[in-house]
Amino acid sequence: MSEASVQIELLSELSDANAAELELLLGQLSTAAFDRSRIAAMLGHDGIELFVARDGRRIVGMATLVTVPLPTGWRGHVEDVVVDATMRGRGVARLLLERLTSLASERGLRTLDLTSRPSRESALRLYEAVGFVRRDTNVLRFTPQPTDGTSSH
């Protein structure tokens, strides 16, 4: 694969083939269960865009761009960046991130953030190479517990 053979596109349709490929990618990223209805909801949400990297017809990477208007300006966040294990080290993640940073600039976003564990040293080097800057901050997370034994999301 050369970078020229990989195309970055905005996913607009969740075909059976797309769903199967996204499920494989998500399994390499997280222990979160794949939920086709959640992906479909994302594709229909105005503030969320799912970009995929295709090598030919096969999806080999993905990244989510979330944009929101806040009192301090339009802000963006990159989520769920993953490249298939067989394609890592070939520039796929760089192409995805370059597309998202380019869109952030074109749209006049005030900031574009992403988070990554400190142990992911090669990913951090890539993020810095495409223009992200480490910040002296703490990421805090609250995980709500369902009150009725079910989850709505």
TrEMBL record:
The UniProt record lists the keyword Nucleotide-binding: no
Ranges for domain N-acetyltransferase: 12-153
Acyltransferase found in the keyword field: yes
Parts forming coiled coils: none
Gene3D superfamilies listed in its UniProt record: 3.40.630.30
Keywords per UniProt: Acyltransferase, Transferase
SUPFAM superfamilies per UniProt: Acyl-CoA N-acyltransferases (Nat)
InterPro entries, per database record: Acyl_CoA_acyltransferase, Bact_Acetyltransf, GNAT_dom
CDD domains attached to this UniProt entry: NAT_SF
Domain of life (superkingdom): Bacteria
Name this protein carries in UniProt: N-acetyltransferase domain-containing protein
Annotated organism of origin: Agromyces salentinus
